[in-house]
Amino acid sequence: MKQIEIIKPDDWHVHFRDGEILKAVVPETTKNFARSIVMPNLIPPILNGKDALLYKKRIEKAIPKGEKFKPFMTVYLTENTNKDELKESYKNGLVFAVKLYPAGATTNSDSGVKDLRKVMPVLETMAEIGIPLLIHGEVTDKEVDIFDREKIFLDQKLDFICNSLPELKITLEHITTKDAVLYVKEGNKNLAASITPHHLALNRNAIFVGGIRPHNYCLPILKREIHREALIKVATSGNLKFFLGTDTAPHLTNDKESACGCAGIFNATYCIQILAQLFDNENALPNLEKFVSRNGANHYNLKINDETIVMVKSNQTLSFKNYLNIDEKQKIKIFKPDFSVFWRIAY
Ligand code: DOR
Ligand code: ZN
């Protein structure tokens, strides 16, 4: 048996949704994570400090008693975002970061940004006062092959933002390609990237194993093995610019198992155990804490958590629950990788 103790992890990218789903999924995150950045892509989206505060209160109600979890709220950038309101909400602590969805890039992104030039004044204000920009980095041009949308975004959009505003703190979220790894590695000091457990665990074959696998469909879409290998290499290297953002994205099974299934993988439940296994497989367990508990906090100028967790490796594989139940009829599929996991969280 083997044991490790690490600083309690943070998840710098979660979707909690709202209503009954929110009540069911929040505890899955709070049991293993101390803090999370919460995505604003609700219907309608979280657009300002007031929306963020009300949403935060709904999240806080769903946190099990005795847990000290902290949700960090975001607003959804649109071409109408008011920079003075944003400044005020940031100063009052209502808003932690701003999310840029290119319009149409993913789930509930219709009110996102069509023309980057229109939001440059808001981004300038953010750079001045230090508000982080979180980016879904894919172009939305339907002519561009879905597997190339991240790489083209780097060339056509991210490069422009980084060169125009080198002082802006940017997280390129849920990166999926070797190109993004390289871009972020070589980029300015204010640019970092988050990586999900599913993009570390799977390549694009997982979408088509003997048939179509809707539960492995997410955006950005899974990529070739060479890209997964580049992600694994950088995540396990301890490089300060790369950290965990799970992009845990609950959808009801009915909405995933459909002729037009939703994008998103719900991975909150066993995320840390899966990551421990992946790092162990690479002989990189000493760098797990950097990826899940240190690098993200460092990027956001936050202190690391005081608490620790203890993980134990046994010779018995972890048995995964298949579903998180919402009510008698509705459930969410829990992410399970195609390899055995021997790590557990002991306490
Ligand atoms: O797979 C995804 N699901 N990617 C996203 O960017 C959004 C998310 C969601 O909200 O379901
Ligand atoms: Zn997301």
Give an overview in words.
The protein is α/β, with parallel strands linked by helices and 347 residues long. It has a single domain (3-345), classed as Metal-dependent hydrolases (TIM Barrel). The mean pLDDT is 97. The longest helix has 16 residues, at 149-164. The chain starts with a strand and ends with a strand. 34% of the residues lie in helices and 16% in strands. It has an eight-stranded parallel sheet. Helix 1 (19-30) crosses helix 2. Helix 2 (49-62) links the parallel strand 3 (35-38) and strand 4. The structure holds (4S)-2,6-dioxohexahydropyrimidine-4-carboxylic acid and zinc ion (ZN). (4S)-2,6-dioxohexahydropyrimidine-4-carboxylic acid (DOR) binds at residues 15, 41, 106-107, 136, 218-219, 247, 249, 263-264. The site of zinc ion (ZN) has 5 residues, from loops.
Spell out the key features of this protein.
34% helix, binds (4S)-2,6-dioxohexahydropyrimidine-4-carboxylic acid, binds zinc ion, alpha/beta, eight-stranded parallel sheet, 11 helices, TIM Barrel, 13 strands, three-stranded antiparallel sheet, globular, 347 residues
